[in-house]
Design goal:
By secondary structure, this protein is of the alpha+beta class. 38% of the residues lie in helices and 21% in strands. The protein has a 5-stranded mixed beta sheet with strand order 1-6-9-7-8. A 4-stranded antiparallel beta sheet has the order 2-5-10-11. A 4-stranded antiparallel beta sheet has the order 13-14-12-15. The two termini are 32 Å apart. The protein binds ligand DP6. This is Diphosphomevalonate decarboxylase.
């Protein structure tokens, strides 16, 4: 027999950025972070996990049609081994269950967007992997408990197991058991929220997040302040903004946190650059739109790459998405599209 489960996981885009690890093996962050889960209509990973006693002995992983070196990916191995251990304990407690934990696994995963282009593909990827294997193994663990496993695959992945507004609490314990994701508000709390993704470049990024954040932790002088006071204050403030559906407040914190994160990258030694001229043109345009309208209607944020994600409310779609498309779309030699327009929060 072949046992099988298929699932999808969404992309999440942080508004308070995770940048820095206090433990690289357990993948524990130096600060809490908060993200918005995007709609799976535009951006998602689709993963099928199967297992069978008749499969060849090794676990395999295929990503976007290409076999991956699973044995050299400590992170993938860590996720699989944690999930297997949970399945094994179910089988030990109930001898009538099929011994799935002893069968080789086959994982097949596909993104509908460019991988490693600063579009949080690792987040959706590891979240889908963990969810698919957990479903295959019929594990009773909650998304919050599974976030502990997904975190070991990629930090940001722990936030893609839930919808809506999700916080990843840094936690205090050395073993990381309290470093978990939790839903701050469901998608339905703020259904007017929208996001547009401007794909400035779909190429692979120069410096991976993992490597970049290690350089920042080791060398940036601004970083300590970000971790000790800037982020904790912003976490509290943005959670209030979300609770009150206060878009201008949400937007200012989001833009400032993106800017602080990229400032610590520039302050790293040697400096790290993720944004480019087109990214900066989009930043200026968002400020221009907000100034022209006389209220804050749009907020940009950038991950470890040049692509912009711009948040706005549904009523301002024409003003924000319309203006950005017509102006940046007409800029010669810069932006080469496409635009993704996921409705934030609708899964
Ligand atoms: C800038 O989650 O990709 O997108 O844990 O090393 O896999 P690893 O890092 P990753 O880093 C994401 C960094 C970020 C900010 C964020 O998503 O919070």
């Amino acid at each position: 027999p072949v046992f099988r489960a298929t699932t999808t996981a969404p992309v999440n885009i942080a508004v308070i950025k995770y940048w820095g690890k206090r433990d690289t093996t357990l993948n524990l962050p130096t600060n809490s972070s908060l993200s918005v889960t995007l709609s799976q209509k535009s951006l998602r990973t689709l993963t099928t996990a199967s297992c069978s006693p008749s499969y060849p002995t090794e676990d395999t992983l295929n990503l976007n049609g290409r076999p991956q070196e699973i044995q050299s990916s400590k992170r993938t191995l860590a996720c699989i081994s944690s999930l297997r251990t949970l399945r094994k304990s179910l089988e030990d407690a109930d001898s009538s269950l099929p011994k799935l934990s002893s069968y080789p696994l086959r994982i097949v995963s596909e993104n509908n967007f460019p991988t490693a282009a600063g579009l949080a593909s690792s987040a959706a990827g590891f979240a889908a992997l963990v969810r698919a294997v957990a479903d295959l193994y019929q594990l009773p663990q909650s998304p919050r408990e599974l976030s502990r496993i997904a975190r070991q695959g990629s930090g940001s992945a722990c936030r893609s197991l839930m919808g809506g507004y999700v916080a990843w609490r840094t936690g205090e314990l050395a073993d990381g058991t309290d470093s978990l994701a939790e839903e701050v508000a469901p998608a339905s709390h703020w259904p007017e929220m929208r996001a547009i993704v401007l794909v400035v470049s779909a190429e692979k990024k120069d410096v991976s997040s993992t490597e970049g954040m290690q350089t920042t932790v080791a060398t940036s002088e601004l970083f300590a302040q970000r971790v000790s006071s800037v982020v904790p204050e912003r976490m509290t403030a943005i959670e209030e903004a979300i609770r009150d559906k206060d878009f201008p407040k949400f937007a200012e914190i989001t833009m400032r946190d993106s800017n602080t994160f990229h400032a610590t990258c520039l302050d790293s030694w040697p400096p790290i650059f993720y944004m480019n001229d087109v990214s900066r043109a989009a930043v200026r345009l968002v400020h221009d739109i907000n100034n022209a309208v006389g209220r804050t209607v749009a907020a940009y944020t950038y991950d470890a790459g040049p692509n912009s994600v711009i948040y706005y409310e549904e009523k301002d779609t024409e003003l924000v998405a319309g203006t950005i498309k017509s102006i940046l779309g007409a800029t010669a030699g810069g932006w080469d599209g496409p635009f993704y327009e996921p409705l934030a929060n609708v899964t």
